[in-house]
Amino acid sequence: MFPAENLRDWRNEKVIDPDSSKIGDLEAVYVDTVTDQPAFATVRIGMIGRHRLVFVPLDGATVLPNAVRVRYDKKTVGDAPTIDVDGELEATEEPKVFAHYNLPYQTGAAGERRLARR
User: Count of H helices and E strands in the chain?
Assistant: First the structure.
């Protein structure tokens, strides 16, 4: 995995699927609060004036010269839970993001959130 501070440099760069189909543009990085490692990115998708942000796991992602390639296909990412462009991921919605990708979800020992935007 690559450091979160390097991935932030890719904000607004395109995010592509394994077949090089453009999914959207990288908007933000969310780190796992347990490991402080990049866990998810939000990707801006949709048409002008109707954009929304979808979550995609960064596990297995690679940085290319002009894009970030994720290991999930465009349809799977497009069907993921969304937030408004100026919205925030609610704590109650975190489990749905993990479940969409069949990833295990567990809060911290004191019930703290699993994802934090960086």
Answer: 3, 8
